[in-house]
Design a protein that fits this description.
The protein is globular and about 60 Å long. Helices cover 55% and strands 10% of the residues. By secondary structure, the protein is an alpha+beta fold. The strands form two sheets. A five-stranded mixed β-sheet has the order 1-2-5-4-3. The chain has a two-stranded antiparallel sheet with strand order 6-7. β6 and β7 (124-125) form a beta hairpin. The chain has helices at 5-16, 25-31, 49-61, 74-79, 109-114, 128-134, 142-157, 163-172, 176-185, 187-191, 196-202, 207-241, and strands spanning 21-24, 41-45, 65-66, 83-86, 96-100, 117-118, 124-125. It has two domains: 5-127, Beta Polymerase, domain 2; 142-228, no CATH class. It is built from twelve helices and seven strands.
Length: 245
């Protein structure tokens, strides 16, 4: 995986300071084989005091300031907020770094760390199943990316997969025609799946019905994400409304 020089500088700085973090967002999508254009860096971090102290030291070296709200505090990360930094040091000037420690529908950081993918350059990335879980948001741009992630993984490994891989694809695939192919290719695995879209493919229903079931799943996840963020957005709005000291 080829990274922007500015991104590599930030990751090298974090590693030098011993920050426990996992690459996620667009850069992680690229590492898992899905094309994405992004100039930001998104990280999941362990939100304990020693690790956040190490992160603060790394951000100081990068001359990174917190932009907007919320402030860089453990309580904010524990609540599920993202903290946004803008770097100013030479080589990384202008790069935005967003950090989170808690995400809807995603396991706590220690479990993510145990399942991490480590790239050839030593960078730790969210595993593909965890990245897929993190991408189920209300944002329009995330759903096409989910489809590309699953397609790339399936086409790369369908000839040398195991039952865990097949279960993952049948559970998460967002492409109706591929679900039809998977059901035909792995009928025994598909027979155990209760997912509506898979059942429709198994029963050889028209592709538009399978697509409709996938759309229903997406709509449900979008609603859940909107509900999850509603109180957090209200908290952010309250912070923005406070007079600056």
């Amino acid at each position: 995986m080829s990274m922007l020089p500015s991104v590599q500088i930030v990751l090298d700085t974090l590693a030098r300071h011993g920050v426990k973090s996992l690459l996620m967002g667009g850069q992680a999508c690229i590492s898992h084989g899905a094309s994405e254009f992004t100039r930001d860096l998104d990280l999941a971090v362990l939100a304990d005091v020693p690790n956040l102290d190490a992160l603060a030291n790394a951000m100081r070296e990068l001359q990174a300031d917190v932009i907007a709200v919320p402030p860089f505090q453990k309580a904010m990360l524990d609540a599920g907020h993202a903290v946004h930094f803008r770097c100013r040091a030479p080589g990384v000037a202008g790069l935005r770094v967003d950090v989170m420690s808690r995400m809807r529908g995603v396991d706590p950081f220690p479990a993510l760390w145990e399942r991490r993918t480590v790239l050839a350059n030593g960078v730790a990335v969210l595993s593909l199943p965890d990245l897929v879980a993190a991408k189920k948001t209300q944002r329009d741009k995330d759903w096409p990316m989910l489809r590309r992630l699953l397609e790339a993984d399936y086409f790369a490994r369908r000839s040398s997969c195991n039952s865990t891989d097949v279960a993952f694809w049948l559970r998460e695939c967002r492409t109706a025609s591929l679900l039809e192919e998977m059901v035909a290719r792995f009928p025994a695995d598909a027979a155990e799946v209760t997912r509506p879209a898979v059942r429709l493919a198994r029963d050889r229903k028209p592709v538009d019905q399978i697509t409709g079931a996938l759309r229903d799943e997406e709509d449900s996840e979008r609603r859940l994400d909107t509900a999850y963020w509603a109180p957090l957005k209200k908290q952010l709005e309250s912070m923005r409304a406070r007079p600056r000291e």
